[in-house]
Amino acid sequence: MERGGRIMTDRPLRQIGPRRGLAKTNFLKTHCVRGHEFDHDNTGWQIDAAGYLHRCCRKCARDYRRPSKQPAVAS
């Protein structure tokens, strides 16, 4: 039902906090920022200082920890 430019519903709207809404949005993502798939083998879990659970891409973490193959440039 539409009334005065506003959509009216019979059921009440649920309010969720910004942290919960963001968590749901991130949970629905199937790939990391660099395009690796979030599957059982590639998904790692971390707990931050505030106690929140975060998932991370294991391939990206492995690439981050891997030393660079380029030789250091002498000054």
Protein architecture, described:
The chain has 75 residues and is an alpha+beta fold. The protein has a domain at 16-63. Helix content is 24%, strand content 19%. It has helices at 18-27, 58-65, and strands spanning 2-3, 6-7, 43-47, 53-57. Strands 1-2 form a two-stranded antiparallel sheet. The chain has a two-stranded antiparallel sheet with strand order 3-4.
Describe, in short, the structure shown:
The protein is an alpha+beta fold and 75 residues long. The protein is built from 2 helices and 4 strands, in the order E-E-H-E-E-H.
Helix segment tally: 2
Order of strands, main sheet, comes to 1-2
Task: Point out poorly predicted stretches.
Answer: none
Largest pleated sheet:
2 strands, antiparallel
Radius of gyration over all CA atoms, rounded: 21 Å
Q: Structural class of the secondary structure composition?
A: alpha+beta
Query: What is the chain-wise order of helices and strands?
Result: EEHEEH
Per DSSP, what share of the residues sits in E-state strands of 2 or more residues? 15-25%
Mean pLDDT: 80
Instruction: Determine the fraction of residues in helical runs and give it as a percent range.
Output: 10-25%
Could you tell me how far the N terminus lies from the C terminus, measured between alpha carbons in angstroms? 72 Å
Shape: elongated
Per DSSP E runs of 2 or more residues, the count of β-strands stands at 4
